[in-house]
Amino acid sequence: MTPAVSAVYDGYPPAARAFLLAIRQLVFETAANLPEVGALTETLKWAEPAYLTQATRSGTTIRLAWSPKRPEFASIFVSCQTSLIEDGRARYSDDLTFIGNREIRLPLSQPLPATPVRHCIAMALTYHKRKSAP
Fold this sequence. Notes:
This protein is α+β, with helices and mostly antiparallel strands. 40% of the residues lie in helices and 22% in strands.
């Protein structure tokens, strides 16, 4: 983790930081289990931790965020130009809260629903590869 990314996580309240770091761990674990994804680039986009498949371009950017405007939630953001939220909503509307066409909103007061979140992460990390498949 770069010092800049670490500083963002360090600026979050403890509960949000722990929750988002658990999601971050899922991002890296999921990427490691998908050979087509390759190494991830961890950086900041819009002052939020972001994960890119820069080496292979297999997927779209994943951003993790917490906001004092909604302090009881953590969010996973993907590009609004993808169908990822629509696809996730079709599969996991009973397990996850999808906002608009770019956000998965997760309550900090509940355990991280790892299985559906992991699948949504995998779909994001392979979005371009799947989209261009014959």
